[in-house]
Amino acid sequence: MTLAEVINEGLPRAAWSTIATRPAGPARLSLAYALLLAQMFLGFILAIVLVSTSQSFTDIFVPEFARAKSITYVRISSFSTFSSAVEAAIAAASRALDQPDVPLLLSSVKFAVNIVLDLLLISTFHVRTEDPTVEMQAGIQLTCNMAAALLSVLYFVFKNASCRQDPGITTENTYSKMAQTTRGEMLSSNLSSAPSTTFSVPESSPDFDPLEPDVDGTGDTSPSIDYAGYEGIDWNRLAGFSIRKHRKRARTGWVWEHGFDIENTDSGHRYWLCKLCHRKKTTITHMYDAASTSQANSHMEEVHHVCKGGPMLPQRKKQRTLLDMVDLDTHQPKDQALMNAFISSFDPLRFQHLLIRWVACDNIPFHKLESPYFRDLLAYANSAIVDSGSVPTHSTIRDWIVRSFNRHKGVVTELLRRSLSRINVSFDAWSSRKFMSLLGLTVHFLDDEGNFRTFLLGLPRIEGRHCGENLADRVSEILHEYGFEDRVGYFVTDNAESNDTCLEDLGRELGFKKQHRRLRCCGHIINLVARSILFGTDADAFEEDCQADKEIQDEVKLWRSKGPIGKLHNTVHWVERSGQRIERLHKLQSIENTALGLEDKTTYDVVMDNATRWNSSEAMMERAYTLRNALDSLVQAEVTEWSQYVARRTQNGAKPMPKKCRKKPTIVDDRMAAEDWSVIAEYLAILKPLKIATKRLEGRPREGRFGAIWEVLLTMEWLLKHLEEAKLQHERDEEPYLRIGCNLGWMKLDQYYALTEDSPAYLASLVLHPAFRWSTVESQWSDHPDWLTRGRTAVQELWEEYRSLPIEQDTIPEQPTVSRMTTDLDDFMASIRKLGAQPAPSVCSVRDEYAEWVASTDPGDCLVDDPIQYWLLRRRQYPRLSRMAIDLFSIPAMSSEPERIFSLAGQMVTAQRGRLKADLIGAAQCLSSWEKSGAIQISK
């Protein structure tokens, strides 16, 4: 095949180029005939060789069972080499002689013969004398090729013979004109540097050569002559240059469309001359070395705004900076001083810190820093920002964030070491959109200045299952990394069993009792209570069913079984599935508002619920109850349409419904009746206290309230009382939903209320609040004296852990004094005062601070709102008891802080930022949390 390609492709192409450059007509025609004969001869020889070797070829490459059939096919196909050679020769010769009708005839004949033979011999309409075979197909193909090749040869010879005999159009005249045209085209395409010498073309001179300038020494500056491709060039301005004489290869760059190809006659160097600039007669001649077109490209783009694709879009003007607008003259001393002050005011390091803070705290995508619009904004504010290279790339900002995290980790470690309270911990596991499992661990404590601190301490990746042992390893690593494993306080987590296992492992490692240190997130408890009210005893199973993949029809039935709240869920989701229904809902609200004279009132969308979050169900019901009239009208329209359809198909009930009919819309069975809306209103009334409790306890207890551990027992007491009243209110309801829901909710809350007895922290924090004390507990538990007995014992045991602790010197801070000259007597008196301030060991061992405080009474205690500040002021009087109180009042009631962190991390780990690694996510989120909590200041 390679040899055939050389004969059919290589030789014709070389001959084509040779014939096309031949100046004389007869010589061109003779060369074409020579090519044709040589090509036919070589093709015939190659066909004979292939036929003679067909047997060997078949024995080597064809299986034995097919050799008999294949040998004939190979021999017939071998002669296709001869026909292909003839076709290639005819095509090359006819192209060189500008005779495109010859290849057209060849293709037409081949097509016609092939169609005729196929119809006669192979198709279903063939002459039924022979059965079609592979050999027959090969023969048809060879016949087509040979017939087309021979007819094209005859037509080529006949056409050129007729041209020789035509007296009006002789072959010599024809090729003479073609030669002249070809030469002119070659001159225009092979432009070289032409000198600025006057060219003259005498009309009577038959031997004129356009490449020879008319240099007569007279200095004549007659107008330049336009040659093909050089129209508009002024040779008088190009002394020492001429048209490019020779070109080895064609010009391929787009820039040559806009430039002249000229040559320096002295050096022989080739140049590109800008057509636009030259024709405009600019004072500067724009010509560039043609060895490389990069300079010419830049000239066209920057000066003429033309690129390879054509005219360039208008470029944005260079951003003027504030410094440009001031227009200072640095030659003037005052302006120079002002300029220096302005430039020196920019601190690249401080800018770096501010940029890190912005990116980390606002979850800015790193690639946004590379935006040209953002950089223009910075340059406008201060050009020194961009000029100094202070704006990083996306990879550089990653390194900056990690370095900043490592630099500030020591500050956070020292802050934890100097804390007044134990370091309380809350943690939870989370999976990102890319299914990356992370453990968020936050700490809660009082710093050395008495300020409540809560922030993220680690966000490591969880490898493997979320089992307790795995979680314990991650938590232990963070505790040891920051060095407070011996000062860890209480753990606030949700009710997952893996958390129990985790704390058991940590208790064995760090030496604490799991039951005492394990506190349950109150928000999670309220969530379980609310779900029991809404979805019954099988709330978890119902949640799993809702999350499982199933048809919409099955999901609708599942929700409908939950009564009015399920029907409302189906209605809301039915509305959200259609843009037309949403639009119709807004129109119905507008009609209602107009009827009530409230034309300016805003219309609302429905709120979608989530089966795993009770507050989303509460929000759905609250919004739907507000829009109940519009929702009823929207659903009623569907019900009416279906009723009319059924009446038509059944002839008003006279006939049964046909089997082939429309499917009944699911929304028809979910129409909300007045009784259903009444149930929804009752649900909202029952859930409202739970919503209030959640909002109060999810805060950060900066002043020892609104999210502190002491509020848990009182909140549970209040909710239990509320649910008891709801049970009594609905115990005689005909519909079971509210009656059963209230009972189940009360039982769930009572279950977790009893579990608070496992840890004395709940009761001890309430007792040590000066506004409540034991009197409050006694009034609440008056019907349960056994609770009081066990409670007093638990609090006393907790106090015993603190009673024997040594008094730290920093618990008795020195009063600040005015700086003045001191004498030796002053120093002596100061030393005596310090000795007097130290309590005697014998007294400390006997004194019971807890018993003293419980026995004391102060009328102003009932007005105390900030228990933390209360105990900070009494550290001198009750050094050990205040330490116990500060430890307790720094415990949060809920593990909501990790949830906040996960919400922020979700904004960072978006679908577009799937390549972020866990260590980088943790570093950025820790920096953000530390900065926002005041633990560090990145900008300093």
From TrEMBL:
Keywords: Membrane, Metal-binding, Nucleus, Transmembrane, Transmembrane helix, Zinc, Zinc-finger. GO terms for molecular function: protein dimerization activity; zinc ion binding. Residues 191-203 have a biased composition (Polar residues). The chain crosses the membrane at residues 31-51. SUPFAM superfamilies: Ribonuclease H-like. It comes from the Eukaryota. It is found in: Nucleus. This is 115 kDa protein in type-1 retrotransposable element R1DM. It comes from Purpureocillium lavendulum.
